[in-house]
Amino acid sequence: MFKKDTAYVSEFTLFMRDFLEKNPQVAKDQIEGRARLWDKQIDRDFQSEAEASNVPRKPYYYQPD
């Protein structure tokens, strides 16, 4: 799975390789976690309505008109 004929491999890399070989479910759990938090379908109609409803701000908030 991993290329082992490199000149230098850090201790952390060795640890992670060993950990992932012993715990193959971690990669699957990472993919599921990403899908739960980040990979969402975007409602384009709602997004365009939200952007259209923004009110422009004044350059200096406390300055009277």
Describe this structure in words.
The longest helix has 13 residues, at 25-37. The N and C termini lie far apart (67 Å). The protein has 65 residues and is mainly alpha-helical. Helix content is 52%, strand content 0%. The chain is elongated, with a radius of gyration of 24 Å. It contains 3 helices and no strands. This is DUF3460 family protein. It comes from Parachitinimonas caeni. Pfam families: DUF3460. InterPro entries: DUF3460.
The number of distinct helices, counting runs of at least 4 residues, comes to 3
- Please count the beta strands (DSSP E, at least 2 residues each): 0
Basic shape: elongated
The helix/strand order is HHH
Low-pLDDT segments, ≥5 res? none
Helical amount among residues, as a percent range?
40-55%
Pfam families: DUF3460 (PF11943)
Organism: Parachitinimonas caeni
Protein name: DUF3460 family protein
Topology record:
Elements: H1 11-22, H2 25-37, H3 44-52
Which descriptors would you attach to this protein?
single chain; 65 residues; mainly alpha
Brief overview:
This is DUF3460 family protein. The protein is an all-alpha fold and 65 residues long. It has helices at 11-22, 25-37, 44-52.
